[in-house]
């Protein structure tokens, strides 16, 4: 019997979420709605431009795959998360936050000198999230951080596409895919961000290799991957590299390819105030529901409900009691 439902790997980032407006983004020269990698000097420059807003900011253990792993854990699927943190205060905070959520990790064991990764998540009144990420020591995530025993003892390996930007992270993602396939562990990949797909498309194809079991993406990422403006072309392109996939489309119906047919699953009607973590929540909820015996359609319905809950409040995660309430729907 497998020990974990999901073995995930990704960047360990301490999120600082801040409410801003479009004028703030323009004044700081930030591209809205995308994830932008920045160095420590640029991150400090941005922080210094909004000291008043930092007073009401919130810290959280973040990173795309981590958010998904935490969601899956709360929804009843055991998870393991491989990452790289520094031996600093925020690295300890990060690792302990994972453990408090019940997610197994090698973070504390592998911690070393450096600076733990950070992400400024800027939320505008239209609920759009814009991220400025300093990877810090997380950029050095490598094959050395992989727990091959935990991976082999899992049902799914989940890889965040953001790893494609790192010289050591991309080989680690490829190794996870290879090790998983060697041990008959299914592989899921998140395409992560439209900008990532646009600028690192070839690297993502290397991570995917000759094909995987499941891809998570939104419509913009799917179109960027297919280098097309037509959703039909995007669907065809995804079919060529993955047995199954899910395309989320905001308030429009989610498209699910279960290996046989493309199914349409209605989105939840909700007023979004913060879309940060919506895709991560969807992926974690979908994997948890699917591994608990639910069909792709049922898993997508549940994942849409979970994502709707997270976008209706600030932050990429829910309170434990909110997870429990949703879990009761499974």
Name the average pLDDT: 94
Radius of gyration over C-alpha positions, nearest whole angstrom = 18 Å
Helix content: 40-55%
CATH homologous superfamily placement: Ribokinase
Tell me about the largest β-sheet.
9 strands, mixed
> Shape, please?
globular
In short:
The chain has 330 residues and is an alpha/beta fold. Helices cover 42% and strands 23% of the residues. The protein starts with a strand and ends with a helix.
Please describe what this structure looks like:
This protein is α/β, with parallel strands linked by helices and 330 residues long. It has one domain: UDP-N-acetylmuramoyl-L-alanine:D-glutamate ligase (3-Layer(aba) Sandwich), CATH 3.40.1190.20. Helix content is 42%, strand content 23%. The strands form 2 sheets. Strands 6-5-1-9-10-11-12-13-14 form a 9-stranded mixed β-sheet, with helices on both faces. Helix 8 links the parallel strand 9 and strand 10. The longest helix has 16 residues. The protein is globular and about 50 Å long. The model has no long low-confidence stretch (mean pLDDT 94).
